[in-house]
């Protein structure tokens, strides 16, 4: 029993918070101004708690298992949620359904935690749905905005379709092997055509959630239409969770097929980088811009995945952490600006630095980190990904990845140029930044600077295996 | 001598610049920091000389080694040999001068100085590091400050130039990255330059990886035909930006070509030396001819930089000890000279508000100091004895002439021919700006250099004349290091 | 034994002058600058004469052979073992002779400039440049190492550049200084490659080492150097040719002479010092310095030297006959006289009697320096007086400027080869050497010396006789106020005139010969008849044409129309060069390179960006916004991946 | 004729493709949702068929299909809520009315 509490600690805490919020909702209305700090505090507690009492083990006949790496990944997710709750303060204070929003978000988080720990395909499927459906609802949270509902519609339909494909694949796997337990699958997996087909069906669902080209088409539309808090959740937390699971599934369950999926990953990685970058070049809306940039980033993550080694897993986890703080910083700035001025276009950012130097620096730092420019952490993240990906010795692959860094630098610099260089007669006036937002931006910036230079963090992740 | 000091001073200066409030404080903090760094560089130089005099035969001195990331075998590994010491001296000279000439920047002063110092930090780190990863880190770190310096404080078509510069340099570093990772895997997960230099890497691999590394660093040092960022970048950059760009940043590339590409992959260097020689001979002559046709002083100096840097690439590819020493001397000399050149152009531009050669004239009458410096630096550029350019070029020529076959001889003659063309464009620039009648009546009332400009010019002139009059200290500093490189090329 | 400090101070004192006046001349030493310069030069000249005396009469000779001494040799820069630049002092007959010439003429010019440049605002700069020039020229003369020589060679070039462009606000002066620098630079390109080739052959930059390696018949270096050939010419010959190109550039030999006439844009004392007496003979000195190599290892090149010299001599003399600017006439005359020195070297052999040409050449160098400096300083006095360079503005000045007139006449007689003035003796030896060695050269030279007498006296009569000014008297009165320029200007003239008169009696062969042994200069009275006669004929024709104003010159030039125009336009060599540089180098190469850079190299880089952008625009339709289409892409991709993985890859 | 596994699989595959086809061609959002339900049902059929004929000893397939039915219901609930909201803002449940977000 004690083991149950230890192993499912994060899930339990998240569940408790969800119920707590439900009860609060049932009770009489509390003003957002009072409720929000409380929620933020609780989420902080959740994040801090995720570091303690982590033990390895499994439950329910291996349906649920956890280890220190998974626990660390869960901490990253909790951190992401906490930071989002801070960064979106402006928007959250205005929203009329604050508890519901967090109930949905935490449900999704719960789904993701379960997903990371899932030990068989059933739990995997259930938690995946749990991690997806609430996000679709969240996308619609700007109830009166047309774009928000369009985004939600696209999200739910696409994800339902993709889970249909996923299920078809799972059913085939079940038909071939007779088992849905991860631990048994590698032994039973044969290289038959049907199995490969089932694998591709299954993989497409991952690709869909990670927005790997050519399964990425929903991404930009949904990112653009959703509220920024949701967009950042979608692009950071959700993506991180799926990436972590993809690592375990590919290198664990589908190890026998590794020659096949290596090729697949390489091709899709190149495609993602190219398409993501090429689309990002022309974007005007900052959210849409970040959507395509995140597609390109996923291409980079796949470089690390292709390495198929422990150090590759560490690099991906490390990179996701860096990617999270960088992207959240960018989204945080976008959110502040969007909430206070309603401006979301890159051209509106011209001359931002003049009145808002802090926002300008944070945004620049975040974008440099995304572009992989030292001394920001993004440089280290990307380099480690390339280093592990290069272990297979495919110079062409590494070269394409490196060349894509040039294209991506171009469009990141476009934003930097707007912020620092371009002239504007009516720049965005001085914005007030709320304390929680400031705190979160500070945390993100400091992490962006320090995560890379402090090499022991990577070594720590590496030691978790 | 602890090498961390050399990184610590700029880092501290940068942080202080961010902390202080007024523009005056920013300037003085930067200036004091840069001067302290200059003193530290001299301390390093003397400490290095003492060690050498004490028969310390280690390849790299004052090594510092901290494990950065164990899993990847990345070390924060610093150390210096003669080449690094010389490069660090060069950098600290240019930095002090650059900070001095920027004294009157009023727009976003704090940011400006911070970026300058960040850029210099990148250069110092680059010259100090003995670990490829750290080296690459510092190399890349210097890219974005350049972009911002040009973009924010630049002039002309600065957007285009800044973008071109950042993207082309990024392209260069992408190539370096690939080459570096290649070395890493071939060397058995090793980024350490010292260890890598002890390995015997199979010839095929060397042939494969060498182009990546050399071209990559070549982009930084304006290897033809990847030089096109140079003219636009330099001409749009603010004065100090151009000085740093040409004086320091282009040297990063040259240093990398030598230290990483040629030193670690000697077989590759031998294989591709012919191509490099052809490209750099083209760069030398073609750069000189294009310079001759320019009307804008900054474009002129930018193209002449392409031509001058071509000398060092040419000399490197000759693969003899004298030539490599010459290449390094040329890098140092060109760094000082071109920084001064840009400084002078900046001073002239600040006053006349034009950089067009044919709009000026007779400036000698109103600004004797500036034009005298202009004369001196022009003479340095065309290789006048007593100034550093001569010594460097002669070492290059003598070194190149040692390789006796028609191909190398022809390349050397082509290179020597460029000194005539250099004379043509330098005299044209000097003749139509400083000499002749005053064309624009408003120029008759211009003021001569201010104290900070004078100090900047004098500091760089000390370097130029110091090398020009007594070159052997520099030559002796560089030669042992060059010998190690040539020994590896010869397979000793 | 030589006193190192004394010798060292000879070049260093002018250098101190340069530094002192260059740094503080505008501020602290504004008044005293000329005096400081002159005093330092005086000291330097004194030391030079002392050194010369001691060398020639005290310690220089060991058993009838003058020793080559190197009292000081400091390593300056080591390129590779054996290949190093040394900075040293070389004391041997020719360098000591040159020391005297340079310091003496320089002193005269310093002195003269006190008057000539009086009241010029930048006189401190002027004196510091003079100091720089003298320093560099002395360094060149004293060089022990061929690279040291090159270094000072370049410095000499740059100080010449600075002094020609001294009147920097005159566009013609700016153009002239640029031209001078670039043309000599072009020649130096050859010189440098020549040095590299010599060093490659001889394995050293050290002059004595080089000479011994490349002249002793059994040395390996020489054998390889001769064996190694390029387009049928041996490496050593290539080296010698290239080095001679360097010398020809500096000495304004045809066809690299075009800068010299333009260089007259500089102040006249500068022309006297640099472009008449010292710098322009550096080419002669260079060949003389390396004479053993030329003579023994590359005799064919020496032949070339001879022909280039004599061609330059005659061409310059012809042009000089038609020029109207007095300084230009003197410039061409300089070129012509240097041609004499060159071909004298060309007709010499190493050692003994055959080395007559060598001695003669340097003898002529010595005498020419004196009388040509005198001519220039005299012309300077005239120009100072009439404020014009043109002959038509002069005439009848003999009464106004008696001292100048006398001195000028002595110099003209000297250069025309009228005994017993200096020029007669040296030219005599040259002609004698040519007569024994190469008759064609001898006849051309004879003709040239006639021309020399003619144009010199054309100059002389035009300035001092010709029209008797009545109309211009008032103007002359105006000029006359500053008279001939005071004693500081007249003293050098008188001293030089004395020199021109007596220098020929120096037993030159006792001091200088190709092998440093004493050579009795032969003197045949019968042989002298032809040159002297021809000289007198030239003078007579000039007398008829120019003594009084008449229409003979106009008539004759009309008769010789084509020839005259050709010579008047300097054989259109300038135009040819202009065509070559403007059309070929600027338009064909320069513009083409610039075009390629913009439209090909740069365009390629830009195209990479544009193509990416356009591609990005072209594929934007993929993201159609239709969720069903997304589904189709999704499903199709799945199917394609399955098919590819199963059928193609597996 | 006793229906065998191939018959069942044929039906499920047909259902799957009918669902996919419907998802691609129908313009009405509710109908598209129904098409997805068809896909899910084909998967259910698959699971049951495999469970009965291939792996009769295991119960995984049965459980799986029960969970799928449950999740499908949840999904449909959220989807319909979203569609209703879309109807409020767009006055239509035609998928083509909601194509503002593109490129």
Provide a descriptive summary of the structure in words.
In chain A, α4 packs antiparallel against α6 and α15 crosses α21 (456-463). Chain A has one domain (2-463). The radius of gyration of chain A is 21 Å and the shape is globular. Chain A contains 21 helices and two strands. Chain A is 77% helix and 1% strand. Chain B has 492 residues and is mainly alpha-helical. Chain B contains 20 helices and two strands. Chain B has helices at residues 4-19, 23-53, 82-101, 109-128, 132-141, 143-153, 158-186, 193-198, 203-220, 229-236, 239-264, 266-293, 297-318, 321-352, 363-366, 368-381, 388-401, 406-433, 451-469, 472-490; strands at residues 61-69, 74-80. Chain B has a two-stranded antiparallel sheet. In chain B, α4 runs parallel beside α11 (239-264), α11 (239-264) packs antiparallel against α14 and α14 (321-352) packs across α20. Chain B is globular, with a radius of gyration of 21 Å. The mean pLDDT of chain B is 90. Chain C is mainly alpha-helical and 650 residues long. Helices cover 73% and strands 4% of the residues of chain C. Chain C has helices at 4-24, 33-59, 93-116, 123-142, 146-164, 171-202, 207-215, 220-227, 235-250, 259-262, 268-277, 282-289, 291-297, 299-322, 326-346, 356-386, 402-416, 422-437, 439-464, 473-480, 486-502, 508-511, 525-546, 552-559, 561-568, 573-618, 627-649, and strands at residues 61-62, 65-66, 69-80, 83-91, 229-230, 233-234. In chain C, the strands form three sheets. A two-stranded antiparallel ribbon of chain C has the order 1-2. A two-stranded antiparallel sheet of chain C has the order 3-4. The model of chain C has no long low-confidence stretch (mean pLDDT 86). Chain D is mainly α. Chain D has helices spanning 5-25, 29-54, 60-90. Chains in contact: A-B, A-C, A-D, B-C, C-D. At the A-B interface, α18, α19 and α21 of A face β1, α5, α6 and α7 of B.
């Amino acid at each position: 029993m004690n083991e149950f509490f230890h192993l499912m600690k994060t899930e339990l805490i998240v569940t408790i918070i969800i119920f707590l919020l439900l009860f609060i909702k049932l009770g009489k209305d509390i003003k957002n101004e009072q409720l929000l700090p409380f929620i933020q505090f609780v989420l902080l507690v959740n994040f801090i708690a995720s570091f303690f009492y982590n033990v390895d083990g499994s439950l329910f006949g291996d349906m649920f298992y956890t280890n220190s790496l998974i626990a660390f990944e869960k901490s990253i997710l909790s951190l992401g949620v906490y930071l989002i709750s801070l960064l979106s303060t402006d928007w959250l204070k205005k929203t009329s359904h604050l508890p519901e929003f967090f109930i949905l978000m935490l449900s999704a988080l719960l789904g993701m935690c379960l997903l990371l720990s899932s030990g068989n395909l059933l739990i995997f499927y259930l938690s995946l749905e749990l991690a997806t459906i609430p996000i679709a609802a969240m996308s619609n949270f700007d109830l009166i905005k047309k774009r928000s509902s369009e985004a939600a519609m696209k999200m739910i339909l696409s994800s339902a379709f993709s889970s249909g494909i996923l299920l078809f694949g799972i059913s085939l796997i079940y038909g071939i092997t007779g088992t849905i337990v991860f631990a048994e699958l590698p032994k039973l997996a044969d290289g038959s055509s049907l199995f490969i087909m089932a694998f591709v069906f299954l993989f497409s669902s991952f690709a869909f959630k990670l927005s790997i080209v050519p399964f990425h088409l929903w991404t930009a539309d949904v990112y653009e239409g959703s509220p920024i808090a949701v967009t950042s959740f979608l692009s950071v937390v959700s993506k991180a969770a799926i990436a972590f699971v993809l690592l375990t599934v590919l290198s664990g369950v589908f190890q026998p097929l590794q020659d096949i999926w290596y090729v697949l990953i390489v091709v899709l990685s190149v495609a993602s980088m190219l398409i993501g970058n090429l689309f990002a070049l022309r974007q005007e809306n900052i959210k849409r811009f970040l959507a395509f940039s995140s597609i390109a980033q996923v291409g980079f993550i796949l470089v690390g995945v292709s390495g198929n080694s422990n150090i590759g897993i560490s690099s991906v986890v490390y990179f996701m952490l860096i990617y999270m703080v960088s992207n959240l910083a960018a989204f945080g700035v976008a959110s502040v600006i969007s909430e206070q001025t309603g401006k979301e276009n890159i051209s509106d950012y011209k001359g931002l630095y003049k009145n808002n130097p802090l926002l300008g620096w944070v945004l620049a730092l975040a974008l440099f980190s995304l572009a992989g420019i030292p001394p920001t952490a993004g440089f280290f993240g990307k380099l480690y990904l390339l280093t592990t990906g290069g272990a297979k010795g495919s110079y062409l692959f590494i070269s394409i990845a490196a060349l894509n860094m040039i294209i991506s630098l171009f469009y990141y610099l476009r934003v930097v140029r707007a912020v620092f260089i371009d002239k504007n007669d009516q720049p965005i006036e001085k914005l007030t930044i709320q304390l929680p937002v400031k705190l979160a931006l500070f945390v993100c910036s400091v992490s962006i600077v320090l995560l890379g230079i402090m090499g022991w963090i990577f070594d720590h992740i590496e030691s978790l295996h | 001598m602890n090498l961390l000091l050399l990184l610590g001073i700029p880092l501290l200066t940068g942080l202080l610049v961010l902390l202080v409030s007024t523009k005056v404080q920013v300037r003085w903090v930067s200036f004091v920091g840069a001067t302290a760094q200059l003193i530290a560089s001299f301390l390093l130089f003397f400490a290095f000389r003492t060690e050498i005099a004490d028969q310390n035969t280690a390849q790299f001195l004052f090594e510092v080694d901290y494990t950065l990331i164990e899993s990847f075998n990345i070390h924060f590994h610093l150390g210096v040999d003669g080449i690094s010491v010389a490069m660090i001296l060069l950098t600290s000279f240019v930095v002090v001068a650059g900070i001095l000439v920027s004294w009157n920047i009023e727009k976003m002063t704090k940011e400006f100085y911070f970026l300058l110092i960040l850029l210099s930090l990148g250069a110092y780190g680059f010259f100090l590091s003995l670990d490829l990863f750290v080296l690459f880190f510092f190399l890349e770190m210097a890219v974005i400050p350049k972009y911002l310096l040009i973009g924010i404080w630049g002039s002309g078509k600065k957007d285009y130039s800044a973008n071109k510069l950042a993207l082309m340099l990024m392209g260069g570093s992408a190539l370096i990255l690939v080459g570096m990772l290649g070395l890493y895997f071939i060397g058995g997960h090793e980024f350490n330059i010292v260890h890598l230099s002890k390995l015997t890497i199979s010839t095929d691999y060397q042939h494969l990886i060498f182009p990546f590394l050399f071209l990559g660093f070549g982009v930084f040092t304006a290897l033809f035909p990847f030089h096109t960022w140079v003219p636009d970048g330099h001409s749009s950059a603010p004065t100090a930006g151009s000085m740093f760009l040409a004086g320091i940043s282009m040297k990063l590339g040259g240093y990398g070509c030598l230290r990483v590409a040629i030193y670690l992959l000697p077989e590759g260097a031998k294989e591709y030396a012919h191509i490099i020689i052809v490209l750099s001979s083209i760069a030398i002559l073609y750069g000189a001819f294009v310079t001759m046709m320019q009307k804008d002083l900054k474009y002129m100096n930018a193209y002449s930089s392409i031509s001058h840097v071509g000398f060092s690439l040419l000399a490197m590819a000759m693969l003899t000890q004298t030539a490599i020493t010459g290449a390094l001397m040329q890098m140092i000399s060109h760094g000082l000279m071109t920084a001064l050149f840009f400084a002078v152009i900046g001073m002239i531009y600040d006053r006349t508000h034009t950089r067009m050669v044919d709009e000026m004239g007779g400036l000698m009458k109103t600004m004797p100091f500036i034009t005298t410096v202009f004369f001196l630096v022009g003479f340095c550029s065309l290789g006048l004895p007593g100034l550093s350019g001569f010594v460097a070029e002669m070492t290059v020529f003598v070194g190149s002439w040692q390789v006796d076959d028609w191909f190398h001889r022809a390349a050397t003659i082509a290179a020597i021919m460029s000194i005539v063309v250099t004379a043509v464009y330098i005299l044209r620039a000097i003749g139509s700006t400083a000499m002749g009648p005053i064309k624009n009546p408003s120029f008759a009332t211009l003021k001569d250099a201010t104290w900070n400009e004078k100090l900047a010019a004098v500091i760089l002139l000390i370097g130029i004349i110091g090398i020009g009059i007594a070159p052997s200290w520099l030559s002796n500093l560089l030669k042992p290091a060059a010998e190690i490189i040539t020994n590896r090329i010869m397979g000793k | 034994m030589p006193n190192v400090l004394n010798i060292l101070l000879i070049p260093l004192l002018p250098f101190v002058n340069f530094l002192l006046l260059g740094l503080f001349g505008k501020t602290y030493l504004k008044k005293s600058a000329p005096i400081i310069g002159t005093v330092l030069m005086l000291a330097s000249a004194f030391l030079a004469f002392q050194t010369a005396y001691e060398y020639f009469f005290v310690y220089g000779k060991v058993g009838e052979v003058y020793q080559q001494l190197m009292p000081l040799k400091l390593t300056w820069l080591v390129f590779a073992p054996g290949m190093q630049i040394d900075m040293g002092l070389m004391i041997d007959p020719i360098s000591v002779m040159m020391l005297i010439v340079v310091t003496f003429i320089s002193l005269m010019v310093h002195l003269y400039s006190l008057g000539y440049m009086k009241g010029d605002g930048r006189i401190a700069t002027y004196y510091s440049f003079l100091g720089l020039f003298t320093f560099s020229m002395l360094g060149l003369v004293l060089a022990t190492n061929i690279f040291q020589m090159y270094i000072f060679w370049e410095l000499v070039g740059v100080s010449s550049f600075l002094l020609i462009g001294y009147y920097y606000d005159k566009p013609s002066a700016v153009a002239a200084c640029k031209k001078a620098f670039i043309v000599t630079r072009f020649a130096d390109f050859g010189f440098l490659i020549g040095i590299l080739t010599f060093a490659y052959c001889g394995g050293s930059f050290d002059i004595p080492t080089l000479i011994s390696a490349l002249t002793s018949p059994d040395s390996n270096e020489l054998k390889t150097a001769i064996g190694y050939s390029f387009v049928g010419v041996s490496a050593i010959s290539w080296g010698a040719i290239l080095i001679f190109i360097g010398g020809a550039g500096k000495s304004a030999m045809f066809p690299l002479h075009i800068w010299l006439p333009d260089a007259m844009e500089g102040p006249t004392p500068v022309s006297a010092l640099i472009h008449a007496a010292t710098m322009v003979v550096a080419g002669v000195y260079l060949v003389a310095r390396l004479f053993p190599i030329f003579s023994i290892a590359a005799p064919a090149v020496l032949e070339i030297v001879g022909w280039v010299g004599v061609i330059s001599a005659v061409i310059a003399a012809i042009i000089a006959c038609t020029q109207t600017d007095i300084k230009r006439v003197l410039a061409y005359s300089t070129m012509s006289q240097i041609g004499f020195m060159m071909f004298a070297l060309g007709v010499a052999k190493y050692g003994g009697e055959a080395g007559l040409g060598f001695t003669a050449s340097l003898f002529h160098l010595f005498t020419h320096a004196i009388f040509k400096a005198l001519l220039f300083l005299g012309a300077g006095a005239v120009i100072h007086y009439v404020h014009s360079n043109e002959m038509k503005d002069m005439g009848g000045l003999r009464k106004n400027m008696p001292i100048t007139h006398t001195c000028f006449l002595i110099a003209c007689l000297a250069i025309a080869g009228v005994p017993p003035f200096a020029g007669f003796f040296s030219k005599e030896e040259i002609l004698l050497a040519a007569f024994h060695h190469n008759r064609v050269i001898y006849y051309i030279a004879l003709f040239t010396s006639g021309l020399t007498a003619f144009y010199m006296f054309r100059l002389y009569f035009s300035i001092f006789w010709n029209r008797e000014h009545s109309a211009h008297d008032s103007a002359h009165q105006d000029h006359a106020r500053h008279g001939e320029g005071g004693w500081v200007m007249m003293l050098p003239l008188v001293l030089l005139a004395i020199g021109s008169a007596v220098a020929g009696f120096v037993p030159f062969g006792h001091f200088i010969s190709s092998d440093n042994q004493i050579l009795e200069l032969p003197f045949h009275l019968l042989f002298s008849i032809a040159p002297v006669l021809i000289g007198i004929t030239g003078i007579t024709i000039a007398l008829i044409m120019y003594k009084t104003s008449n229409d003979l010159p106009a008539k004759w030039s009309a008769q010789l129309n084509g020839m005259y125009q050709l010579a008047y336009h300097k054989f259109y060599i300038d135009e040819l060069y202009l065509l070559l540089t403007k059309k070929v180098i600027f338009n064909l190469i320069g513009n083409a390179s610039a075009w390629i850079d913009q439209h090909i190299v740069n365009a390629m880089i830009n195209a990479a960006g544009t193509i990416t952008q356009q591609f990005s625009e072209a594929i934007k339709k993929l993201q159609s916004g239709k969720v069903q289409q997304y589904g189709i892409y999704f499903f199709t991709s799945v199917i394609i991946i399955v098919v590819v993985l199963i059928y193609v890859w597996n | 004729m006793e229906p065998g596994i191939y018959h069942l699989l044929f039906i499920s595959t047909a259902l799957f493709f009918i669902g996919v086809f419907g998802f691609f061609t129908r313009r009405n959002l509710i109908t598209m949702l129904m098409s997805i339900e068809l896909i899910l049902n084909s998967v259910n059929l698959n699971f049951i068929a495999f469970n009965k004929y291939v792996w009769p000893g295991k119960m995984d397939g049965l459980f799986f299909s029960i969970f799928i039915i449950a999740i499908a219901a949840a999904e449909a609930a959220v989807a319909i809520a979203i569609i209703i909201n879309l109807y409020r803002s767009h006055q239509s449940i035609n998928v083509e009315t909601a194509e503002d977000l593109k490129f």
